[in-house]
Amino acid sequence: MPRAGLTVERLTRAGAELADEVGFDQVTVSALARRFDVKVASLYSHLKSSQDLRTRIALLALEELAGRAADALAGRAGKDALAAFANVYRDYAREHPGRYDAARFRLDPETAAASAGVRLARMTRAVLRGYDLSEPDQTHAVRLLGSVFHGYVSLEMAGGFSHSAPDSTTSWVRIVDALDTLLRDWPAPVPAP
């Protein structure tokens, strides 16, 4: 019988908070049970497994990111949209490091297709419409942005930029400027030899 007050939603939110505190890879049903001071078995009436819990946290994180991105992009285009979109990722990762990791959790194809990750991908392409890229260059640009955003945020969060000047925010602004310049002057494909 389910414990009073425990719901899938409440457990998912608590799991997301736990991820931010101890790291997404440390989130398990057992760790969540300790947080609520209940037996692990009592949570299995709500959650199938630790994999199910992690999947739910990933879906929550994607939903939160998509909501923030939609708000940030409203009424913006070009470089303003690019900067707003980039800052959503960086700010979210800094505020919610465990959830940010969860947003990159590998989902099965059906779950991924029904997730807010699809909205985020559409928003990325919407930002790129301001740069007049056609396929396959738009896909290359989507991959570039994802790589730069995630790579920079991961290195920054690991302390990789904390031992030298200028500060990481100054570099971040310059990188977004450089991305804007690159996207406005996207190189033509080089013919194969």
Automatic annotation (TrEMBL):
Keywords: DNA-binding, Transcription, Transcription regulation. The keyword DNA-binding applies. It comes from the Bacteria. One of its GO terms (molecular function) is DNA binding. Signal peptide: none annotated. Pfam families: TetR_C_33, TetR_N. PROSITE patterns: HTH_TETR_2. Residues 5-65 form the HTH tetR-type domain. Residues 28-47 bind DNA. This is Transcriptional regulator. The lineage of its organism: Bacteria, Bacillati, Actinomycetota, Actinomycetes, Kitasatosporales.
